[in-house]
C-alpha cells in the first residue's frame, strides 16, 4: 500500500493462489505531489510566514484541485473505490477553499464583509465533520492513514478556533499542523514512487482495527 488509501497488489486466479497483478496504474503518483504543493502553500499562509491570505489560491485552483479531480476519475475507473473517495474528498476541500477565497474577495456570493467570518467558520466546520468521519472510517487501514487525517482534523479545529475567537496563535498553530500533514504526504509520495521504480515497499504501519 503506497497510495493515500489502498492499492491492490494481487488477485486470485482460477488456477491457484493469488498472483501478482498487472500494474494497472497508480493515481497517487499524480495526486500526492499536487497535494503537497497545495498544502505547503496553505501552511505558509496559515502560519503567517507569507502574510497574503489568498497566496496559495493559484496553486490550489490550477494544480492541486485539477490534479485531484483527475486522480479521482482515474481511481474510480480502476475500481479503486477507497482511493477515489479520499481523492474526491480532498478535491472538494481544496477546490471549495479556492472558490471561497475568490468568492469572498470578488463578492461572487453577495456575502458582506461582516459575514465573511461566519461563512468561513461554516466552511471549516463542514470539512471538519466530513474529514473527521473519514478519519474514523479508515481505521482498518495502516495506522499512518488515520494519523494523516487526524492531523487534518486538528488543523481544522485550530483554524476554526482562530476564526471564531480571532486568535492568531490558534491560526498559526493550525498552519504548523498543515506542515505536519505535508510531511506525512511527502513520505507517502516517496513510498509510492520508490516502489513504482522497482524499490522495496516502505512500511506504512499496521491497521488499528482488523
What report would you give on this structure?
The structure is a single chain. This protein is mainly alpha-helical and 210 residues long. It has 6 helices and 2 strands. The chain has a two-stranded antiparallel sheet with strand order 1-2. Helix 5 (144-165) packs antiparallel against helix 6. The longest helix is centred in the last third of the chain and has 29 residues, at 168-196. The protein is globular, with a radius of gyration of 18 Å.
Straight-line N-to-C gap: 16 Å
Q: Could you tell me the radius of gyration in angstroms? A: 18 Å
Overall pLDDT score: 91
The strand line-up of the biggest sheet is 1-2
Discrete helix count? 6
- Strand percentage, roughly? under 5%
Helix proportion of residues, in percent? Answer: 55-70%
User: What structural class results from the helix and strand content?
Assistant: mainly alpha
Question: What labels would you give this structure?
Answer:
about 210 residues, mainly alpha, two-stranded antiparallel sheet, 6 helices, 2 strands, about 65% helix, about 5% strand, globular
How are the elements arranged and paired?
Blueprint: E1 10-13, E2 16-20, H1 28-46, H2 57-77, H3 81-106, H4 116-137, H5 144-165, H6 168-196
Antiparallel strand pairs: 1-2
Helix pairs in contact: 1-2, 1-3, 1-6, 2-3, 3-4, 4-5, 5-6
Amino acid at each position: 500500500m503506497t497510495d493515500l488509501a489502498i492499492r491492490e497488489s494481487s488477485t486470485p486466479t482460477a488456477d491457484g493462489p493469488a498472483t501478482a497483478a498487472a500494474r494497472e496504474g497508480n493515481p497517487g503518483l499524480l495526486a500526492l505531489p499536487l497535494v503537497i504543493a497545495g498544502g505547503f502553500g496553505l501552511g505558509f499562509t496559515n502560519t503567517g510566514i507569507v502574510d497574503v491570505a489568498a497566496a496559495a489560491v493559484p496553486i490550489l485552483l490550477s494544480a492541486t484541485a485539477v490534479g485531484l479531480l483527475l486522480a479521482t476519475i482515474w481511481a474510480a475507473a480502476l475500481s479503486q473505490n477507497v482511493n477515489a473517495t479520499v481523492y474526491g474528498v480532498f478535491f472538494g476541500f481544496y477546490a471549495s477553499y479556492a472558490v471561497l477565497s475568490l468568492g469572498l474577495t470578488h463578492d461572487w456570493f453577495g456575502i458582506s464583509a461582516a459575514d465573511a467570518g461566519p461563512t468561513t467558520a461554516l466552511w471549516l466546520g463542514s470539512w471538519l465533520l466530513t474529514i473527521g468521519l473519514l478519519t474514523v472510517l479508515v481505521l482498518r487501514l495502516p495506522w499512518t492513514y488515520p494519523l494523516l487525517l487526524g492531523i487534518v482534523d486538528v488543523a481544522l479545529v485550530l483554524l476554526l478556533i482562530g476564526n471564531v475567537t480571532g486568535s492568531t496563535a490558534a491560526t498559526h498553530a493550525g498552519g504548523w499542523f498543515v506542515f505536519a500533514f505535508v510531511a506525512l504526504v511527502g513520505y507517502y509520495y516517496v513510498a509510492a514512487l520508490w516502489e513504482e521504480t522497482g524499490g522495496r515497499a516502505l512500511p506504512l504501519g499496521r491497521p488499528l482495527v482488523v
